[in-house]
């Protein structure tokens, strides 16, 4: 049975474009321009969904994106709001939150049990007996929630987007369009956003056929269309307001973060429901919902209507129905005197009964439960209770037009001070945030001409704010009539008079909550969950405030409203995720590592080779082989991720002297020193090698993750201290390669155009020169404990240098080695890694770095704290340890605890199996009395197994450092290495 | 002889390049396999010679060598030889040559002679050129600065973040059109290139070769890698 009406002026549907779709397995037809709801209603479907808690049948409420009981699944798209979801051909839609079918939902038995399930019951139930809680949890999880997640659904990629406007106008009704036009005509770039599919706002549904509204709509649309500096975005909602006028605009594809110089909020109002028994039956709807169905989609919402009202808008809606051929059984007016509006006279002339000072006591369900069949009306005093004889009026639909709440979320979020206008019955903005302006009904202005003028006024203020010339705006008066009824609630002993349709909250739930002490609006919200459902209180918050004010006998301004936070409306998670931007740094040798089969690991934002995979070998074998190549021949590792900073200027040495704990002013050019950096608390935060390039030029390295922080801190300190020094962060500009192993000098000597032999290039020396024509800085340092050269090279030449070293080193069995092998090799030398062998509290004294701290210097960062620390007993000490040579079990791991007498007495920071020494060794923090060489201690390893270890001195390998300081020695050939 | 140079994007070009040229020692895609001119179009111009300098004496040092010195921080000036000098802060400069010039290398050479208050800055940037009618949409999806709100005649240099990477940006004339130049740390280059190409691809854009943005370079001899 089609409810579609003959063609209506301004309708949004394209009757020449029919669309087929299915809902719950049944086929239907609609038109392009329909929403899912409008197409279903046009097809005679009344029950569109089931309520969240009691599984009561629900139909249309708002047709304004708030019908949260009429949500559908569209393939992988869950919980789509049918009232605004555009219809597409071939849609296969399913309702959600049902067990069975919409007409026979097994979970509707909960409705029968509702008296045992008052609001807050879950706070008082389920927690005992304790053993039963998992059962309840499973049951609740099974029956609650909307829709079913499909974990196999592909991730939608919705791009992130920014945009910029001089003036952003939120709301495309008469106020918003007028504001946009005024701003654009003054030369501003304007974005005009509206959540509806078309511009026009209430002009598209509230008496659009009336002369004034029709001509205003046509005129405004035509003017907006030709104004090229207005960008219109329909089907787009403003999800929030953030500082400096950042406003996320959400459409079907993405979020666009708009930075506007000024924002005009012309977002209108939300119509509010009346509260009476069974006010949720399908067919009971807001008057504006019926008007939307009527005018946008050419649908008769019902055949016989009763209109419940308290304002002139209700009378006008009744006239709309009459004009569309709907029989209006009666207008039931909450107010005792009724309306003086001409619409009232027209209705009377048409024979429509007007029952002033009446209320709807109850709506009666049709026999099949699919809708309303009649309403009981009675006189009332306005205090929420029917006071006279009850009369039953047959009907199949009820319109509710009792008031509005401002769509003021953006204003609240921007910090606007709102106050309650008692006459109007609405919160209206008082003081607004700078750059934010309000216009139209959200501002309490209702008459069409006034709304247009209010939009122009707001635009002129916005133009003045952004510095564009604008005339001084004339004030626009707010509406001076009662638009919203102060107490649209009708009590009923059997309840089911719903105030919040998201959460099935009844009138009595609020009385109970207040009685239990939740009598503050924020507490009431959290206890009852009013406004916490998907519509976020758009049709319930205002009524909750009114009701609480009534219960507390306080004015509404005293009760206030809940805090408005972004997002104003649910935003799809896919939109929030957007396109992922996760920056990754790759050294100039990345492709070389890929070619060698590198398995990469993340080190901060860098990708580093962990080891190099080879067929038939596992990771452990490969790491051992890589380490062995370094110990016996030569290895090459990319250390380009180290931070690299150049310091130049007459105060360069002074700067380093102050930020590192060692001495650097007395370094000779061409030398390097190890340095550690502390924070003001004396905690070790970074380390590196400092090289002196010239009298006033230094070059130093930092840890891989430390470069940006160190550079930033140095800039701060240079400014603070007023030093004559310039620093350059060349971390990315230089790549670095560590050539290590007994054959390293021979390999480098083949290519270098400078002398790399002893004594020309001694241990800890720094040289600048060319290697096969490539300019380099080479440092003789030995992190891995072998003769080695750290070669720093401009990134653009790094690949060429790597290739040369690999090809030259082939004769010596050279092999690329990764971070895993490097960590094992350095641990054999007892070298610490800042951040792994130290933590956020470690002082150099605890880390056994006393030797690197020159307390007799006049100053260095952290020195004052260390002087205090020196007076205190040590908390812990970093020491080397070994497991017994015979140990054959599961070795402890990093962070495993040292246990003494059942108490924690330390932890392991690093551990590895040393191929060179044939046993496990590592570093551990121990209580000072345990940290003496030779002492044995227990580590709680895997599965609680206690493993015995012994404190030993470091370095474990080559304790005299003879290998890395080695004078010229015959480098082994490849055949010797393999042997 | 100049040692071999590699673009930070060298590996990314291997599969897509139809013809390589050698530009200042750096193999550079002259033409790509994909036909047509995508919009927006992104080209790797890392091979252009460039150098940097900073320090309290840097501006004076440049001026003494006849280089145009932008008066304002975060602005740039063209050089008579077709290159540019960008002022990245109060006392830091980027000098870049035209594609067929080596002025920046000459400046770099001169910087080797110590001068008080002048410190050379090694530039190993990933340098990109972006052009096309759909550039604006690509910017809107990748950067939160209103690049198109900056009048081109102001010759401003913007130091900001793009897809999470710190970049230096300026608008420059290119033939009869305008293009945007983007410089970033070379170690972020591959990520930036891949991410921008992904976004550009959604818009109908993609990568182009050097000759597509500098038509005169089409005559450069091709090389085999």
Task: Give a verbal description of the structure.
The complex is a heterodimer of chains A (979) and B (225). Chain A is 24% helix and 27% strand. Chain A is built from 25 helices and 47 strands. In chain A, strands 8, 9, 10, 11, 12, 13 and 26 form a seven-stranded mixed sheet that branches. Chain A has a six-stranded mixed sheet with strand order 38-39-40-37-31-41. A six-stranded antiparallel beta barrel of chain A has the order 42-45-44-43-46-47. In chain A, strand 33 (672-678) and strand 34 (684-694) form a beta hairpin. In chain A, helix 5 runs parallel beside helix 11, helix 7 runs parallel beside helix 8 (312-323) and helix 21 packs across helix 22. The termini of chain A are far apart. Chain B is α+β, with helices and mostly antiparallel strands and 225 residues long. Chain B folds into two domains: 12-47 and 124-215, Gyrase A, domain 2 (2-Layer Sandwich), CATH 3.30.1360.120; 50-121, Alpha-Beta Plaits (2-Layer Sandwich). Chain B has a six-stranded mixed sheet. Chain B has a five-stranded antiparallel sheet with strand order 5-6-7-4-8, with helices on one face. Chain B is globular. Chains A and B meet through strand 8, strand 13, helix 17 and helix 22 of A and helix 5 of B.
């Amino acid at each position: 049975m089609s409810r579609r009406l003959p063609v209506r002026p301004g309708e949004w549907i394209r009757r020449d474009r029919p669309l087929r779709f299915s809902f719950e397995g049944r086929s239907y037809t609609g038109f392009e321009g329909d929403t899912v709801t409008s197409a279903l209603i046009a097809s005679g479907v009344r029950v569109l969904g089931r309520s969240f808690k009691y599984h009561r049948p629900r139909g249309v409420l708002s047709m304004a994106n708030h019908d949260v009981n009429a949500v559908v699944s569209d393939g992988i798209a869950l919980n789509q709001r049918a009232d605004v979801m555009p219809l597409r051909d071939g849609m296969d839609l399913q309702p959600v939150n049902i067990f069975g079918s919409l007409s026979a939902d097994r979970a509707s038995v909960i409705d029968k049990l509702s008296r045992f399930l008052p609001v807050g019951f879950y706070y008082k139930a389920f927690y005992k007996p304790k053993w039963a809680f998992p059962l309840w949890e499973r049951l609740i999880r099974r029956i609650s929630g909307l829709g079913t997640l499909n974990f196999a659904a592909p991730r939608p990629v919705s791009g992130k987007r920014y945009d910029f406007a001089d003036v952003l106008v939120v709301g495309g009704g008469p106020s918003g369009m007028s504001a946009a036009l005024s701003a654009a005509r003054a030369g501003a770039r304007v974005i005009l956003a509206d959540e509806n599919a078309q511009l026009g706002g209430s002009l598209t549904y509230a008496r659009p056929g009336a002369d004034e509204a029709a001509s205003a709509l046509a005129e405004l649309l035509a003017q907006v269309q030709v104004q090229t500096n207005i960008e219109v975005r329909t089907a787009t909602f403003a999800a929030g307001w953030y500082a400096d006028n950042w406003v996320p605009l959400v459409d079907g594809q993405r979020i666009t973060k708009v930075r506007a110089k000024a924002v005009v909020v012309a977002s209108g109002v939300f119509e509010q429901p009346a509260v009476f028994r069974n006010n949720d039956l399908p067919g009971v709807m807001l008057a504006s919902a019926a008007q939307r169905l009527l005018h946008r989609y050419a649908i008769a919402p019902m055949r016989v209507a009763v209109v419940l009202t308290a304002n002139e808008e209700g009378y006008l809606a009744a006239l709309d129905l009459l004009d569309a051929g709907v029989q209006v059984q009666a207008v039931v007016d909450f107010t005792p005197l009724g309306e003086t509006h001409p619409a009232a006279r027209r209705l009377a002339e048409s024979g429509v009964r007007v029952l002033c000072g009446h209320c709807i006591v109850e709506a009666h369900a049709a026999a099949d439960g699919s809708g309303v069949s009649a309403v009981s009306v009675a006189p009332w005093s306005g205090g929420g209770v029917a006071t006279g004889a009850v009369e039953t009026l047959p009907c199949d639909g009820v319109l509710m037009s009792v008031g509005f709440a401002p769509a003021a979320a953006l204003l609240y979020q921007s910090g606007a001070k709102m106050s309650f206008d008692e006459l109007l019955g609405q919160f209206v903005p008082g003081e607004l945030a700078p750059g934010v302006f309000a216009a139209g009904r959200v501002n309490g202005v209702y008459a069409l001409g006034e709304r247009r003028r209010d939009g122009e006024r707001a635009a002129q203020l916005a133009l003045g704010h952004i510095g564009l010339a604008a005339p001084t705006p004339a004030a626009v008066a707010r509406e001076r009539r009662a638009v919203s009824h102060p107490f649209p609630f009708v009590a009923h002993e059997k309840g089911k008079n719903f105030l919040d349709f998201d959460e099935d909250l009844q009138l009595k739930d609020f009385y109970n909550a207040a009685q239990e002490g939740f009598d503050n609006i924020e507490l009431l919200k959290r206890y009852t969950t009013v406004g916490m459902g998907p519509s976020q209180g758009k049709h319930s918050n205002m009524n909750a405030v009114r009701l609480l004010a009534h219960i507390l006998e306080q004015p509404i301004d005293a009760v206030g409203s809940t805090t408005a936070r972004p997002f104003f409306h649910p935003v799809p998670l896919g939109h929030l995720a957007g396109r992922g931007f996760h920056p990754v740094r790759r050294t100039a040798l990345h492709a070389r590592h890929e070619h060698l089969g590198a398995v990469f690991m993340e080190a901060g934002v860098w990708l580093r080779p962990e080891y190099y995979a080879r067929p038939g070998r596992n990771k452990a074998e490969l790491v051992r082989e890589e380490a062995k190549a370094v110990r016996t021949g030569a290895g090459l590792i990319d250390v380009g991720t180290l931070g690299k900073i150049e310091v130049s200027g007459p105060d360069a040495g002074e700067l380093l002297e102050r930020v590192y704990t060692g001495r650097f002013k007395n370094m000779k050019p061409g030398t390097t020193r190890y340095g550690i950096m502390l924070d003001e608390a004396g905690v070790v935060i970074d380390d590196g090698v400092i090289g002196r390039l010239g009298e006033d030029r230094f070059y130093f390295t930092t840890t891989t993750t430390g470069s940006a922080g160190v550079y930033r801190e140095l800039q701060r300190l240079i400014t603070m201290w007023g030093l004559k020094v310039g620093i350059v962060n060349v971390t990315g500009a230089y790549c670095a390669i560590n050539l290590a192993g007994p054959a390293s000098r021979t390999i480098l000597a083949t290519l270098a155009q400078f002398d790399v032999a002893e004594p020309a290039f001694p241990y800890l020396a720094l040289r600048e020169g060319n290697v096969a024509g490539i300019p380099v800085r080479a440092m003789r340092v030995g992190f891995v404990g072998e003769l080695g050269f750290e070669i720093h090279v401009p990134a653009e030449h790094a690949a060429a240098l790597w290739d040369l070293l690999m090809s030259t080193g082939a004769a010596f069995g050279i092999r690329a080695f990764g971070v895993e092998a490097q960590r094992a090799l350095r641990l054999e030398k007892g070298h610490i890694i800042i951040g792994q062998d130290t933590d956020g509290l470690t002082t150099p004294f605890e880390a056994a770095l006393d030797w690197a701290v020159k307390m007799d210097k006049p100053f260095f960062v952290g020195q004052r704290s260390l002087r205090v620390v020196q007076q205190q007993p040590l908390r812990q000490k970093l020491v080397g340890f070994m497991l017994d040579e015979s140990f054959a079990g599961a070795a402890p791991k990093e962070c495993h605890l040292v246990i003494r007498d059942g108490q924690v007495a330390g932890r392991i920071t690093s551990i590895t199996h040393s191929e060179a020494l044939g046993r496990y060794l590592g570093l551990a923090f121990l209580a000072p009395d345990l940290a003496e060489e030779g002492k044995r201690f227990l580590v709680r390893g895997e599965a609680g197994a206690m493993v015995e270890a012994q404190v030993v001195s470091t370095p474990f390998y080559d304790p005299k450092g003879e290998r890395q300081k080695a004078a010229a020695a015959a480098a082994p050939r490849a055949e010797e290495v393999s042997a | 002889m100049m040692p071999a140079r590699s673009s930070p994007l060298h590996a990314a070009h291997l599969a897509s390049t139809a013809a390589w040229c050698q530009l200042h020692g750096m193999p550079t895609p002259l033409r790509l396999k994909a036909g047509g001119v995508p919009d927006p179009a992104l080209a790797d111009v890392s091979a252009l010679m460039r150098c940097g300098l900073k320090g309290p004496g840097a501006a004076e040092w440049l001026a003494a060598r006849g280089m145009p010195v932008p008066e304002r921080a975060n602005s740039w000036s063209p050089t008579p030889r077709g290159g540019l000098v960008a002022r990245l802060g109060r006392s830091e400069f980027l000098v870049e040559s035209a594609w067929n010039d080596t002025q920046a290398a000459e400046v770099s050479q001169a910087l080797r002679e110590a001068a008080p208050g002048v410190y050379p800055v090694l530039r190993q940037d990933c340098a990109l050129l972006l052009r096309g009618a759909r550039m604006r949409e690509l910017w809107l999806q990748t950067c939160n600065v209103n690049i198109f709100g900056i009048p081109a005649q102001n010759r401003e240099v913007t130091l900001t973040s793009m897809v999470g990477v710190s970049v230096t940006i300026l608008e420059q004339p290119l033939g009869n059109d305008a293009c945007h130049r983007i410089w970033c740390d070379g170690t972020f280059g591959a990520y930036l290139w891949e991410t921008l190409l992904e976004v550009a691809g959604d818009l109908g854009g993609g990568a182009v070769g050097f000759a597509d943005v500098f038509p005169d370079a089409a005559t450069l001899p091709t090389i085999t890698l």
